[in-house]
Amino acid sequence: MPHYLKIELLRMFRNKRYVIFVVVFPVVFYLLYSNLWGSEVDQATGVKASVILMVSMAAYGALAASIMSSAVPWAQERQSGWLRQLQITPLPGWAIITTKLIASMVLVLPSLLLVGLAAVLTQHVSLPVGEWFGLIGALWIGVIPFVALGLTIGSLLPPDTAQPVAMIGMFGLALLGGLWFPVDIMPSAMKSIAHVLPSYDYASIGWNIVAGDAPETSAVLGIAGWAVALGALAVLAYRRATVRA
Amino acid sequence: MNAIAFTGVTKKYGDVVAVDGLTLDIPIGSTVALLGPNGAGKSTSINMLLGLLRPTSGDIKVFGNGPDQAVTRGDIGAMLQEGSLIPELTVRESVDFIRRLYPDPLPLDEVLRMADLTDLAGRRADKLSGGQTQRVRFALAIAGGPKLLLLDEPTAAMDVESRRSFWDNMRAYAAQGRTIVFATHYLEEADENSDRVVVIARGQVVADGTAAEIKSGVAGHAVSFRLGSQSAAGLDALSGVSAVEIQADRVTLRTGDPDATVEALYRKTTLDVRDLQIHGADLEDAFLALTKES
Ligand SMILES: Nc1ncnc2c1ncn2[C@@H]1O[C@H](COP(=O)(O)OP(=O)(O)OP(=O)(O)O)[C@@H](O)[C@H]1O
Ligand SMILES: [Mg+2]
């Protein structure tokens, strides 16, 4: 299993789509946005935009990483026959989905850390050590529902549909969840959609932490609920995809 | 003990009966060819042996256990009819990964050598040709050192040269006392590389024996030579001949027994036989003949 994990990580780091969308995009957008608005200050919390943007772009990067590293590669493996290649080895079935979950979670770390590093180096963002750990830890554990979503998509759809669905899901969640534009400036209909999305709960836990507040219970429960629901769905979809008839 | 035992195995896909009451024992250490045309049920049978498909009825044992157990124990390695590799991984990385999943694998360098991949070990899978990919898939099949090796049309996409060395490699693997079952469309391939040929048609065994036994039961051989302006009269009466075909100045005699036909050609006719050629039975003929009987 550790070797399987290593192989999964290796192949994603060699995958251009992953590196561009996940590692390069969030950092580039952070640099761009923080140059434009970095010094503005949020009225309600007194937090600088460079810090809020850091959370938003890190959240976007993690969201993108978790979906991109799960949905399409998994759909491709099913279609190309690689899954069957694994199924005829002694590797147990549960090890495949577990390894994919762990690999996706590891693949989230580069975007989290690089956006944070860009913020420190270019905008001189500084947070108490506890807040750094809390922020990165929360944004890391919080990707579980998105990995589950990616694996569900990969289990249910062939690669050529999984690709656009994963993209739409990723940008939809990012946009409507307020990672690109603040939810406060959205029309009220969109605002109410945003509030039920896991991506909004996810990012708002981060925003709360950098404001020095405890995460809201509703957000934590929201993420946990989505994790359970999408996790169960992912397991069911995985069973369906690997059933032997 | 048998490596493989099918007992009354039937597999239906809706209305399609892919495998129809198959009963077949394959002893440990033998190399068996499953010969049959498209849609005969070869792949379905192999996939059932691997537990990828479940029989609709009947029973399958691999070394005395169910297929799932055999797979979990690392007793089986297989090259499925279709399948590609992970594009971003090198040959060595893929082979080593699969190898390590087995309890008692072959050494990595030996696997690479046995599949003629030593020179390609560092190449990424998306930079391999079709025939090279097949070789990697063969390497994945043997990497775990399985006691039973299943090959579903393994030489598809290989050129003549690669085919030859592929079969040499397979025989080297078989020589270590292992059991091998391979599916093919070609009687010649079956003939040269197996010690037993099981002909399958419409999901049933229609012939089972050595390649020589199968071929001798089939009027699928041909003897041809340049006839020129000589008369073809009487050729259809020669021993073994079932049909006479004339094309331009060549005549082709279809026969079940080429030895007897050639002998009769020289002894019983006064023809000037030029440019004589003897063709082995091909699958088409063998298959037509075999299915006519059933
Ligand atoms: N998933 C499926 N659904 C419906 N019918 C199927 C399916 N797979 C195979 N069949 C049918 O079952 C029969 C046997 O197919 P199988 O693939 O076992 O043949 P084969 O001997 O391997 O042929 P080939 O030489 O073309 O590979 C065929 O009639 C085929 O159309
Ligand atoms: Mg087949």
From TrEMBL, chain A:
<feature type="transmembrane region" description="Helical">
    <location>
        <begin position="18"/>
        <end position="37"/>
    </location>
</feature>
<feature type="transmembrane region" description="Helical">
    <location>
        <begin position="93"/>
        <end position="120"/>
    </location>
</feature>
<keyword id="KW-0812">Transmembrane</keyword>
<dbReference type="GO" id="GO:0046677">
    <property type="term" value="P:response to antibiotic"/>
</dbReference>
<feature type="transmembrane region" description="Helical">
    <location>
        <begin position="132"/>
        <end position="153"/>
    </location>
</feature>
<feature type="transmembrane region" description="Helical">
    <location>
        <begin position="165"/>
        <end position="183"/>
    </location>
</feature>
<feature type="transmembrane region" description="Helical">
    <location>
        <begin position="219"/>
        <end position="238"/>
    </location>
</feature>
<keyword id="KW-1133">Transmembrane helix</keyword>
<feature type="domain" description="ABC transmembrane type-2">
    <location>
        <begin position="17"/>
        <end position="241"/>
    </location>
</feature>
<dbReference type="Pfam" id="PF12698">
    <property type="entry name" value="ABC2_membrane_3"/>
</dbReference>
<dbReference type="InterPro" id="IPR000412">
    <property type="entry name" value="ABC_2_transport"/>
</dbReference>
<dbReference type="InterPro" id="IPR013525">
    <property type="entry name" value="ABC2_TM"/>
</dbReference>
<keyword id="KW-0046">Antibiotic resistance</keyword>
<dbReference type="GO" id="GO:0043190">
    <property type="term" value="C:ATP-binding cassette (ABC) transporter complex"/>
</dbReference>
<dbReference type="InterPro" id="IPR051784">
    <property type="entry name" value="Nod_factor_ABC_transporter"/>
</dbReference>
<protein>
    <submittedName>
        <fullName>ABC transporter</fullName>
    </submittedName>
</protein>
<keyword id="KW-0472">Membrane</keyword>
<dbReference type="InterPro" id="IPR047817">
    <property type="entry name" value="ABC2_TM_bact-type"/>
</dbReference>
<dbReference type="GO" id="GO:0140359">
    <property type="term" value="F:ABC-type transporter activity"/>
</dbReference>
<feature type="transmembrane region" description="Helical">
    <location>
        <begin position="49"/>
        <end position="72"/>
    </location>
</feature>
